[in-house]
């Protein structure tokens, strides 16, 4: 039997799998769609059981599609960060998971920052308290659902709930733990001072397993459901952004990544933990041992374009994305003075403002539908540039960016990012992302690679490189100046 490795990503919109062989060739890939529940405005929840059902379906379909003669040697896990799963003494889910994009915890974030101060938070966990993080969600539960909180015996993140179902083990990895606001990113341990300050017990938290280390083995009944061999190793894995960075070959500081999915993310690896003094950026542990990364997040990226697509289709969203993006390509950079703020669900970097809202600014009678489309795309691009600009100010300037996510399929968007960032933008010849990163981590656990960086070098294949156009540089500088001036002018209005 020839060896293969399975990467599994528990996303917000879908569970995705990929199976690759020893040479990194894709043998199979599948996905099962997930839905998000919005019980109240600003709330975002999913049922963990749905993750499991989708996992079983996606993994079994991938295994059945895999060519004969291959055996899955290990499973690597990845998943959405920050989302909270709570279990009782019998490991039963107590309530739906509260997701990373849920913003109900503003009061709890203010409580944490008032209690400890930003400087101390930076020293303890490397990040400020934001609505998406896990710790504020736990405080919210204590204050609003005391019965659920009282019955809570285990706290897990999404991929780690799937690990529990697969192996019976309660474990997480440093890259996912770093997104809880309870983890010391420097020592790689749960922060006892944070836990004490928030009156939380470390006994409720999973053990820390290395991202490339075996954390458990498939139990027999689960193996049968998945179509895999009992005892198959399940590897620690990584948070989606860390795994996606490995799956994009973003393993050193010279290369960063920009992702345009529902949200937008800029990631630059660093070899020592560095915290933004003003706490506008995130600093998390990488899934590569002894590496970290700085990250900025735009909450509405592809989601902003999807929103606008629904608007121009009178809510139907029937136009193809390629069709509306082609309209944007007919408009010059800078959109004839039209500027869009993509804060449709608040913003995270650099403003950390759940009250921020979307804005079209500078409209005049000469603007047409194509201008609006381009303005949305440019607004997302400039929001991402906000994050990169902060990284450059901290001395973490990449020489190039690898683009991933749905935005990587658009030549217009790739050129826009290259021009606005004034950097080469590299595409991947095969879409990898978090599932491929998870597969590489799985391969490490099985002994195929001694380090995830080696797997990324061998298995990630680069495609075309887009270079910035010098004739667009000035237009984007002016557009960015307009963009940066809008939030400060509107911040107080957003809060009303």
Structure characteristics:
496 residues; alpha+beta; Nucleotidyltransferase, domain 5; 2 domains; 7-stranded mixed sheet; 6-stranded mixed sheet; 17 helices; 23 strands; 22% strand; globular
Outline type: globular
Total count of helical runs of at least 4 residues: 17
Could you describe the largest sheet, including whether it forms a barrel?
Answer: 7 strands, mixed
What are the low-pLDDT stretches, counting only 5+ consecutive residues below 50? none
* Percent in helix: 25-40%
Average predicted local confidence, pLDDT: 95
| Rounded radius of gyration (Å) | 22 Å
Using the coordinates shown, work out and report the CATH topology of the largest domain: Nucleotidyltransferase, domain 5
CATH architecture type of the largest domain: 2-Layer Sandwich
| CATH homologous superfamily classification of the largest domain | ATPase, nucleotide binding domain
Sheet with most strands: strand arrangement:
17-18-16-15-21-22-23
Instruction: Classify the beta-strand content into a percent band.
Output: 15-25%
Please tally the β strands and state the result.
23
Structural class: alpha+beta
CATH class call of the largest domain: Alpha Beta
Separation of termini?
65 Å
What is the total domain count? 2
Task: Sum this structure up briefly.
Helix content is 38%, strand content 22%.
Describe the structure.
- This protein is an alpha+beta fold and 496 residues long.
- The chain has 2 domains: 2-248, Nucleotidyltransferase, domain 5, CATH 3.30.420.40; 298-427 and 465-495, Nucleotidyltransferase, domain 5 (2-Layer Sandwich).
- 38% of the residues lie in helices and 22% in strands.
- The protein has helices at residues 48-65, 106-116, 118-124, 134-144, 146-151, 158-167, 174-177, 192-197, 220-226, 240-247, 302-312, 321-328, 369-393, 411-421, 433-445, 452-459, 473-495; strands spanning 2-10, 14-21, 26-33, 45-46, 70-79, 85-87, 97-98, 154-156, 171-172, 183-184, 189-190, 207-208, 214-217, 233-239, 255-260, 264-270, 282-285, 292-298, 339-341, 359-361, 400-404, 425-428, 462-466.
- The protein has a 7-stranded mixed β-sheet, with helices on both faces.
- A hairpin with a 4-residue loop joins β2 (14-21) and β3 (26-33).
């Amino acid at each position: 039997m020839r060896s293969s490795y399975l990467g599994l990503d528990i996303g917000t919109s879908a569970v995705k799998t990929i199976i690759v062989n020893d040479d990194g060739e894709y043998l199979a890939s599948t996905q099962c769609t997930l839905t998000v529940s919005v019980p109240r405005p600003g709330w975002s929840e999913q049922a963990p059981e749905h993750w499991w059902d989708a996992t079983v379906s996606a993994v079994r379909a991938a295994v059945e599609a895999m060519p004969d003669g291959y055996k899955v040697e290990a499973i690597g896990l990845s998943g959405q960060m920050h989302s909270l799963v709570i279990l009782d003494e019998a490991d039963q889910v107590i309530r739906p998971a509260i997701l990373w994009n849920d913003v109900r915890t503003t009061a709890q974030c203010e409580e944490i920052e008032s209690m400890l101060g930003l400087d101390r938070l930076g020293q303890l966990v490397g990040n400020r308290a934001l609505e998406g993080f896990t710790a504020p969600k736990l405080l919210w539960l204590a204050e609003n659902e005391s019965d659920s909180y009282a019955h809570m015996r285990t706290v897990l993140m999404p991929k780690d709930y799937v690990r529990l179902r697969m192996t019976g083990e309660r474990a997480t990895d440093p890259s996912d733990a770093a997104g809880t606001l309870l983890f010391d990113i420097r020592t790689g341990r749960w922060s006892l001072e944070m836990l004490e300050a928030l009156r939380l017990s470390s006994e409720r938290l999973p053990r820390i397993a290395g991202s490339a280390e075996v954390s458990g083995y498939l139990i027999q009944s689960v193996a049968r459901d998945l179509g895999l061999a009992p005892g198959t190793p399940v590897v620690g894995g990584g948070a989606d952004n860390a795994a996606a960075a490995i799956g994009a070959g973003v393993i050193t500081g010279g290369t960063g990544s920009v992702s345009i999915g529902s949200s937008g993310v800029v990631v630059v690896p660093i070899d020592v933990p560095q915290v933004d003094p003003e706490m506008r950026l995130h600093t998390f542990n990488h899934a590569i041992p002894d590496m970290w990364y700085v990250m900025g997040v735009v909450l509405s990226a592809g989601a902003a374009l999807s929103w606008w697509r629904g608007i121009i289709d009178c809510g139907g969203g029937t136009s193809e994305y390629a069709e509306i993006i082609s309209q944007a390509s007919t408009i010059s950079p800078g959109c004839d003075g039209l500027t869009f703020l993509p804060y449709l669900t608040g913003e995270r970097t650099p403003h950390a403002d759940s009250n921020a809202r979307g804005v079209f600014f500078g409209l005049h009678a000469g603007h047409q539908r194509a201008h609006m489309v381009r303005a949305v795309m440019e607004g997302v691009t400039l929001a991402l540039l906000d994050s990169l600009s902060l990284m450059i100010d901290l001395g973490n300037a990449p020489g190039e960016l690898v683009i991933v996510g749905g935005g990587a399929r658009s030549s217009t968007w790739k050129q826009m990012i290259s021009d606005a960032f004034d950097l080469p933008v590299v595409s991947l010849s095969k879409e990898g992302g978090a599932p491929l990163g998870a597969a590489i981590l799985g391969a490490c656990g099985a002994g195929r690679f001694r380090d995830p960086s080696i797997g990324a070098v061998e298995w990630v294949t680069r495609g075309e490189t887009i270079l910035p156009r010098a004739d667009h540089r000035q237009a984007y500088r002016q557009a960015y100046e307009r963009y940066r001036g809008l939030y400060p002018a509107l911040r107080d209005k957003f809060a009303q």
